[in-house]
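TOPIC: backbone geometry
CONTENTS: sequence, structure tokens:
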Amino acid sequence: MSRIGKKPILIPEGVKIDFKDQKIEVSGQKGNLQRVIRPEINIEIKEGQIFVSPKSLKLRKQESKKINAYLGLTRALVAGMVEGVSKGFEKRLEIEGIGYKATLEGQDLSLKVGFSHQVKVKAQPGIKFTLEKNNIIISGIDKGAVSQLASKIRKIQPPEPYKGKGIKYSGEVVKRKEGKKVVATT
């Protein structure tokens, strides 16, 4: 059985969980999330914890590997849902470069990052943009949606290795390269 899938998920106070017909719904103070669970996986809610287990224990070796993978994935997804509705998730991006800046237009993000035009990024439902100096903070309750949008924004102008200009994750280290060397003729 999967090592990650064996771990129980603690349910914090204020979080409600409903599991019916292979559909799990997690609701908390930040909002609610739903997900359909694979038919091979079973979820039990006991004593303030969520337990994820396979439906049948007698399986062939090939099926067992797939079910173990689904087990770990399902446990990680449900744990992310519980954390999202209780605490929320955020990703931070940094903008570096002369003339590079971000502005908010309503709920959408507008970027000036070295192109002849502004690049506009629409806010998805449940995701909020916040700006601090040269930082963009993307926050929401769905971990996958927040990470996907952060990746999409970073791809607009990734950091380049010579001057380090571009959009990068907060704390990301850009491996720098040397520029061209001038050969002295003497």
Notes: The chain has three helices and 13 strands. The chain has two domains: 3-86, 89-169.
